[in-house]
Amino acid sequence: MLDAFDPVVLARIQFAFTVSFHFIFPSFSIGLASYLMVLEALWLKTGNAIYANLYRYWLKIFAIAFAMGVVSGIVMSYQFGTNWSVFSDKAGAVIGPLMAYEVLTAFFLEAGFLGVMLFGINKVGKGLHFAATCAVAIGTFISAFWILSANSWMQTPVGYEIAANGQFVPGPSWAAIIFNPSFPYRLVHTVIAAYLTTALVVGGVGAWHLLRDSANRGARTMFSMAMWMAALVAPIQILAGDMHGLNTLEHQPAKVMAMEGHYQSHPHGAPLILFGIPNSAEQRVDMAVELPKMSSLILKHDPDAPLAGLDTVPADEHPPVGIVFWSFRIMVGIGFAIFALGLLSLVARVRGRLYDWPLLHRLAILLGPAGFVAVIAGWVTTEVGRQPYVVYGLLRTVDAASPLAAPAVGASLLAFIIVYFAVFGVGVWYILKLMAKPPQRGESAEPAAGPIRSAGITPAPAVEGERP
């Protein structure tokens, strides 16, 4: 049955499935690690036990999300050798070291201090435990740094040389490869997205518990912190996204043409197509809802500036317009919804209704998972928009795949789908179960009284009247 499918298409679907499933967890753990660092810093500074309570509450959730992110990420690296061996051979000299640096600098740092962070809160000093939390948070950022550097090089390849055997090899400067033209914009945009994704989850959980008990101090604190994040950081993300889009227009114009739905060039100002149905066969967007000249204003800061369309790009280099067009709109739409939620929370804060406005709380719950949808839509826009290339302008995706038959790729794809939904579905269910419980009141993060015994049997306390 699988013989009728294209093995390259199946390999792309497999990688898209695994990377989308994987990125759900890092996009949460990156932000949550920093949130835990802030909570512990506030506890150490103020001595307020509510921050310690919230730290313990979210630490359990972080541990599960982090573990699932690591396990799901390991699978992806194997696919470079199984499904994309030609890519590994051609670009391995550049991509391999970047991914190795991620393991050596980030994963080792996270793994080394994660145990102290999880199990040492009552066993080591406050300063050392806070240092462990900071190390894990910094490690998650370093991990994002190297992975995004590798991905960005594939989008905007520079600093390489082509060897006699056709392989991409590093040039004289690794800095040119690491800090390639799209990397700074992609790093800022992705990390902020992770922070906002975490803020939406924290805010949604806080809102859930406020609807049941508006006096819960833990729910109040987490909801307030999350809404500050949405109100202050969402506008920054919109600005970062705009700058990232301008960078993409410079280096990957065909991707922006697909995002905007511009099949035809516009010499006197291009409209902004809000909605429509891309029709690649007829090279137009059907039933388009447009704002005249707004696309030129956004992309060129001049309403009359000309914008080239896909009619200037060879047909065999067009990305799949329909997918990119709609994934981009999903991402942007959710971004503005987060911005609106932040503004609404400011109104509630000024009116003194932040903790007892059910409409705001229900909206926060509704947007709780929206960050995950936005980051996946953003990655779809980024990755599908660079097609038909895996290394932009240099190596086509069809030429990067392993010489495998469709049944072999299809069988592993079905196995991944079954195992992922079974194993990680249970993990997500357990995370939701933990979130459903409110933060415990009166929980203390102070070390237990008396010495900590590392071995042997702890004697039971003597019963009154019994001789010791």
UniProtKB/TrEMBL annotation:
This is Cytochrome bd-I ubiquinol oxidase subunit 1 apoprotein. Signal peptide: none annotated. It is a multi-pass membrane protein. Residues 441-468 are annotated as: Disordered. Its main location: membrane. The chain crosses the membrane at residues 15-36, 57-78, 98-121, 128-148, 192-211, 223-240, 323-347, 359-380, 404-432. It comes from Rhizorhabdus histidinilytica. GO terms for biological process: aerobic electron transport chain.
